[in-house]
Every structure is written in C-alpha cells, then in structure tokens.
Amino acid sequence: MGNGKSITGTKLKENSSIANLPYDPSEFPRETSRHYISASSEDIKSMLSTIGLGDMSQLFSHIQPNLLFPQPLELPNELSYFEVADEIAQISNLSNLRLSFIGDQLPQWNTPKIIEFVSNLRNLSTSYTPYQPERSQGTLISHWIYQCAMSTLTGFEAINTSLYDRSFAIFEAITCSIRTSRRPSRILLASTLFPKEIEVLKTLSKETGIKFDFLALDSTRGHCDYSVLSSFGIDTLSQYSAFVFPQVNSLGVLEDVDLLTNFCEENKIRSVACIDPFLLGEGGLKPPVEFGKSGADFIAGDAQHLAIPPNFGGPGLGIFGCRHNKEKKSDLRNTPGRYIGKANDLKGRDCHVMVLSTREQHIRKEKATSNVCSNQAFLATLAGASLLSQGTKGLGLAVEIANRHQQKFIDAIQMLNGIEPAFHKNNAPTELTIRVNKSASTLIYNARSHDINLGIEVTDRCNLMESEGELIKLSFSNLHTAECVDRLIAFVQTEFHKKSTELKNFNSQIDNKYLRQKTVRIPSYSDEELFEYYNKLAELNVSPDDGCYPLGSCTMKYNPLLNDWAAGLEGFAKVHPQCPKEDAQGPLKVLHEIQEWFKGITGLAGVTTQPVAGAQGELVGIKLFQAYHRHNGENDRKYILIPRSAHGTNFATAAMAGYPDGIIYLEADAAGKIDISDFDSKLEKYGNQLCGVMITNPNTSGIFETDFKKIADSVHDAGGLVYMDGANMNAIAGLVNLGELGVDAVHNNLHKTWTIPHGGGGPGDAIVAVSDKVVDFLPGKQIFKLKDGTYDYESPRYSIGSFHRNWGNFGHKVRAYSYLLRLGREGIPNMSSVAVLSARYLFEKLNGRYKTLPENALDSPRMHEFILTLSEEDFANLENHGIPKNQAIPQIGKLFLDFGFHAPTVAFPEIFGLMIEPTESYTKEELDRFVEAVLAIKDLIELAPFVLKSAPHFTPIDRVDEVGANRNLCLHEPLDRLPPLPHNRISPAELMRLEIDDIKQRVIKLAKDSQGLI
Length: 1014
Ligand SMILES: Cc1ncc(COP(=O)(O)O)c(C=O)c1O
Known about the structure:
Blueprint: H1 29-32, H2 41-50, H3 81-92, E1 99-100, H4 113-119, H5 122-125, H6 137-154, E2 158-159, H7 166-181, E3 186-190, H8 195-205, E4 211-215, E5 217-218, E6 223-224, H9 234-237, E7 240-246, H10 257-266, E8 270-275, E9 298-302, H11 304-307, E10 318-322, E11 339-344, E12 350-355, H12 361-364, H13 377-413, E13 419-421, E14 431-436, H14 440-448, E15 452-453, E16 456-457, E17 470-475, H15 482-495, H16 527-539, H17 561-568, H18 570-573, H19 585-602, E18 606-608, H20 614-631, E19 639-643, H21 648-656, E20 663-666, H22 676-686, E21 690-696, H23 708-717, E22 721-726, H24 738-741, E23 745-749, E24 766-770, E25 782-785, E26 791-794, H25 810-846, E27 851-853, E28 866-869, H26 872-880, H27 885-898, E29 905-906, E30 914-916, H28 924-943, H29 947-950, H30 962-967, H31 988-993, H32 996-1011
Parallel strand pairs: 1-15, 3-4, 3-7, 7-8, 8-9, 19-20, 19-21, 21-22, 22-23
Antiparallel strand pairs: 2-10, 5-6, 9-10, 11-12, 13-14, 14-17, 16-17, 18-24, 23-24, 25-26, 27-28, 28-30, 29-30
The chain binds pyridoxal-5'-phosphate.
C-alpha cells in the first residue's frame, strides 16, 4: 500500500532519475522486461509453433472481427521504465503537503518502521487468499494477529479479517441486524455519523427495502439529542432492527455510548457502534464490549490509519465484529467476511485456517451473508504488525501526545476573542471542533498562506443559526510536534484579537464513564524481533515472483516493484482526501488519466474509479441498471439472468442489490458456453421484467462467449441491460471492444489484469466502465481537466450516490496507472495476447495426459485459462486406493504445493476441475518446468496414488483438519507472545531449484514413510 515512505528522504525532484529507486531494477528480470512480459520473442515464436499458429492475431480468430479494436489503440505510447518513474514522480509533485490538521477520523499517525518492512515482504504482499492453508500460514498467522489484536482492544470475540471500509462495515452490520432481529428493515441512524458515510448507506440500501430514520443532533452539545429517545412510541421502537451510532462523532464529540447501548438493549434493537481502535489503547476510550449493561452487538470502524497514511482516502481497513460467547452465539453465522480460526493439522501440529466459509458467496451464492470476496487483507496484516510494534501502551502514548497538542491549542484560543471550542464537554481526545465568529472558509483559505491546512469546515453538520458562527474541525496526532502546534497557534493569533482579560474556563476533562476502566495489554516488540518474525512468516507463503502461480480466474501475475514505489510517493500517500483540491492535483491527475484510459481500453462511454473490489463493481453495475429503469419509469424489472457457472459474487451481488428472488440461472451448452435455447426461453418468460443479464466473458471455463453480442442485442431489445464480469479481462484487454459487444457496465479487477498485488486476499480494486445509457447515473465524482491544465470534479447528473466515503482504494489506482504508463497502446493487447498464448501452450502440452472440461469443448479455443480433470478410469483407480472422487481434486491441488507451486483453482467452476491460468509473466522455460511438474503429478496419480493421502509433504504443516477447526471455533487468544511459527520442511524457493523427478521420488518416499508403507 502507499506507505508514504520517502525513497530519498525527500520528495523526488523534477527530472529525477531512476537512481532514486530504493532497488536496482536490473536485479529483477521480470521488472525490466518490456510490458512485464518475460517470454522472449523466440519463446513466443516457439509457443506459437507448438500450437500450430503463425502469429498472435490468430489466437483471436474465433472472435467476430467487428468486435475487435483496430490496432493500434487510441491510447498514449508506452514509456520506458525510467520515464515511468520520472513521470510518476512529477505527478506526485503536483500535490502540496502542508502542515495539516485535517483528520475527520482519517488522521495521519506516525507509522512504525515495521510497516515499511512488511510492505516489502513480497511473499506476504503478493500472495493469494489463504485458501490453501498448508502454503499460506504466513498470511493466516498475520491475519490471526490482526484478529487477536482487535479482539483485545475492543473486547469483541469475533472480528473478521476486514471489510472494505467503515461505511461498508456499517451496512453489513445493518443487514446482519435485520437478519438476526427478524424485525422490519427500519434502521435508526445517529445524525452525527459522517454525512458522506450516510450517503454511502443510502446508496447501498436503495431498492433493498431498508429505511433510515435519524436521531437528531443537539447542536448546543454537539452530540445526539438523547431527550428524543424517550419520545419514541412502543410501536415505532418495535419497528427498528438496528441503531447505528458513533463513539466519536463527526463533530469530534463523544456520544454517551452507555445510554445509547442501553436504549437498544431495553428495546431489543441491535446496537451497531462505530469505533476507532486507535483510541482504545491504554488509558483510552471505553471499549465497545463495555458499552452499557452488556456491550454493543456489532462494531464497525476503520483502521486504515493504524497501517498507512491517508492515501487520498484508501485503501481503507473496514473493521467488523460481533459478539460470540455463551450468551450470544447466533450472530456470528449471519456475519459477512473471512475469519481465521485456530486449527490442527492431521499430525496434531498447531496451525491456522479460514473458518465459517459456508456463509460466503463462493459457497452460498445468493444465500450468502454478503457479496464481499476480496477484503482489505494486506491492510489487516499491516495493522496487526503496527499493533505489535506499538502495543497498547504505544497507542495510549500516541493519543496522549495528540491530546497534549489539543490542550495546548485550547489553552491558546481561550485567550482570543471570536474563537472557542464549539462544544464544552467530552471532546474526543484528538479532535476539536472550534467555533469562529468569521467565515470558516476564509479562515481555512488564509491558513494556507501560512502553509497550514487548518482543518475541515463542519458548519453544515450542525444546524447553527448564522449568528452562532461557523465551525471547523481539527485533528491532532503524534506526527505533530510542539513547533507544529506553535505554528497553528501563531496563525490563529494573526486572525483573532487577544482578550482583554485572561479567562481560562474551559474544562477539557473527559468524563470518566467514557474512558477505559479495565487494563488492556498487547505487548510491544522491538523492530528487530518483528523484522525477524515477519520475515519468517513470509517464508511460509509462496509468491508469483517465484514462478507460475496457476490460479485460474485469479490472474496471479507479476506485480511490478515500480508500482509499489509509485504508490508510496508522498505526493500520493500523504494527501488527505478532504484537503482542498488545489493541494490534491497529483491524485486527481492520476484518477482522471485512468478514467480516460479505461474509456479507450473498453470502448465504453464512461468510467468510475470509485469501486474498491470486483464485487463492489458488480453492485455498482446493478445499481446503475436499477437507476436507469427507475428513470424510465420501469419499476418492475426485478429479474437478473446469470449463467450457473458464474462466480459466486454475481449471485450474491444481485441478492444484495435487492433481487434475492429475482435470479434466473442460465445453463451452459455442451461446449461450455451459454445455451442459447435456454437463454431464449428465459428471455421470453422474463423479458419485460428483466433488469439485465450478468455474463463473465471470457467465461469461467476460459472460453470466449461468441454469442455474447447476440445475447446482448436480445436483452437490449427486451429493455434490459448487460453487465459483463470483467475479471477475465486479462485475455481480451485492448483487443475486444466492449462497446461493440453490447456491454452496458463492466468491472475490471485491478488485482488481476492490472497488476495490483493480491495482498493475501485484498485490498482488491475495481474500475467500472459503462455505456452511454447509464453514464449519467455513475457514482462518486467525475474528474475533468480545466483549460489551465488543473483538475476539478463534479457529480454526474443523476448520480446513484457514492459507494465509498472518499475516492476508493486510491493507492491501488496509482499502481494501475504506473502499469498503464509502462504498457501504453501496444503493451495492453500484447499483455493479453501473451497471456492467451501461454495458456494455449500449456493446454496443448497437458491435454491428452489429462482430460479437460467442459467435456465437449475441445473445439472451443481456450483463452487465458483452462480446466483439467481426470478420466473416469483415473477417478475409479483413486477410489480403489481409498480416495473418494469428491476428495481427489482438492488432494491433487495439494500435490502442486509439493512441487513448489501454488495449487490451481480447485473445484470451481467445475466441481471436478483444476483451473489453470499461467498469465503472461513467465518464460517458456518456466512454463515448461510447470508442465513437467503437472505431468509428474499425473504420473503420481496413476502410479503412486497413495501419495494423495498424505500430500502435501514439504509445507510447514500437513493437511489441515478444517472440520475440527469449524467445530471447535477459536477466533482469538491473548497476544501475550508472538504466535509460534511452523517451519518449512522444504521451502518453495528450494523446491524450485530441485529437479522435478527428484521431487517426485521424494514425495513417494515421504508418503510411504508417513503412511507406514514399505
Ligand atoms: C469471475 C470473478 N468475478 C468477480 C470476482 C470478485 O472480485 P473481487 O474479489 O475483487 O470482489 C472474482 C474474484 O475472484 C472473479 O474471479
């Protein structure tokens, strides 16, 4: 993530050169190869000849020519590696970084050294979601640390390994409350939540039946008007499923969380408390487990600031938690997201594994608790490391320092006329809203000539009369020094006159009842201890740096170091999303360029860069469709057609958008494409009630839907719209014109095609492109370039609202932009072509020894991925050796780990399939070694099937007892020591150096030894 590290100690200067990079790119062959394609031109020629093609364009000859872009694309030319570095550095220098008191609960704290260290551990930052626990203990334990640390701070027993951000976490807590309270979908919201977060909640809840009421503000005291609570009638109270309130509100005032939580408990309303974990350390605020008589039911929050600087608003780190104890057990299974549990392997070793996955979209489809797939995993890893470095004492100290600054400022303004703390009791320890008797915006403007970003105007958060002045909120942190505060004070002294008499009557004490009463302890560890520990953690994982990472659909390609460096530049990482736009020209330029590039890449009319993951992109798409139909007065279009083989998020998204009962499955034909006769009959039945269709193209079997255009035309004729799941853009980017294809909305997963690291499960990221039909409804802001070359933004005419409080996962957009600059107009289609070529080459080499799926699809040319399976005889042979058919495929996946690779995608979309996607990142030699390994695996299946029973053999742990881990759920433990680590028996790096045949023999020997065979 953009951790704001200074590469040279200062910002890069204009015309800086590659010498400023903290690494030598020539030491990383994948880094310096053109378009990040490792295969040489000889490799490409040889692979083409193996598959019997003369040139790259023939890879796409089965796609109607009118759907293909004329080449070259109308996009900028590629830049050299050096030019990209300079260009990006210059763009980051467009930002102004002033002494800033802007926070609004995204303050910038001093980040410990471990953050930068862990950010550079590629086996943690680039690895996949830990679905293969034997090769992912590094990720699992780092997430476990996050879970345990958050549990310690909050007292909550179940904290998931993150959601996108606080707004999304609140929405998820609301839907959980509705499910668990079995009451109407009516929700009470504190009006002191952030206005932009309320906007997100409204956007997400449209068409879902959720209704919001607001608990009014007491504008004198700056918190909710508690007197209103007693005026609610019994009938009204029984309508509410949940009440959402913050601990520190949007005016920087502490709410009476005891009173609000008790109100919920007394009226059987689920309480959702919004918290900031940074404030819960030693001597800090009361933890949510102690709110009221029994604690809150759910918590939502953001912990981005524990991990990284503001990054223009994201990636965030959405905290979500529920209670899970003897009294409250049932909520957990209704919650969204991933949890890590303690487990044992089959030999009884302690280890960790993802648990409770039967709630998630990949298993439960539209019945899932949420559509979330990628989360903010790597931020959770960083936040966990940050907490181990600071400990609860460190957090307490950081807040104490910030509070001293706040006090000093309060003391100073008490000597001045016309400026005062706006609220006289229980201001949060690090924030302060001031009331001024002059224009807040002028004051903020004037501060900038002193190189100070004073804070944000919050007058409109409080219904003040004109005579009551205007409000500005300031945030203090441990990054501020005494001199910083002196500068702030000196500025206000220039603006306000001294009082004639000194009158210090402001009591800034926080009432004891708002504070933590019991001790809390996360110890802090030295940098050296943590460097060593996280290094060891990383060694337990495998990274796409090391070799082919063949996860179909997930596109585990090489993630350039240059992109990470770019995202870390201060002019991106340290820019606050609420700073004046004049100061944020660097980020705005990046977002604008991406917005425009993606119109060219997709052939569509509009683009939003706001969505934070593929699944959220899908939701944006469906909400756009709903808005379009509403706008046209068609309110009855409530059906969505989705192929049965689609990714689970498609179904879960449709349900989340408000159509849990409107999903109509489309069947596949024998060749693995949408069955046109099935489509026709469903269209006939649902046509005039059709919202739209969601189609993945190329589909999840790696086959291009050659009837896509025909289907799109029919859907349009019926008045519906067409969503394309673009997770597989790696096969067609820059080649297929989605406008010609008939697409109305498509998401591009940046953590797939566009080289964003997977982070052990996230943050993902997405860009959604749309047709002109829905362009006026786009969410968030559209950025445009003014004549003077600067950037500005505005909301589209009929915008559906926002999906994120700020600009989305901005740090990731910088990475994607750096990649785009390097690829340019030739690189984009070249990248897709080599990805397809690599897959076809592997297919050619493996087809025959393995069967492929779909069964009758041999004539459908594969794009960037394909599915292997076994013959019925092979399955029968395995059954005879005690390996049931339903366990064979997952167990074969474990054999890949033995050869130093990650497993392919197992059992999706075909239950008996291994889906392989090589990407364009590997040389022919590397692909050949992979082929050799996959063939060796086939030898083992045929000649030594018993090895499957004990596989994997070289990972730090044996196969994990997932059933046991789910039965005896353990979601946290005290962090009084660093969790012990298992050890690689043979590391993936070492396996990569061994001969494939040697590995094969070792596997046989180890399997015999461990199973007691002679
Ligand atoms: C086909 C497909 N669609 C949608 C998604 C969801 O994307 P995200 O994980 O970014 O939410 C994925 C993710 O793996 C996918 O493979």
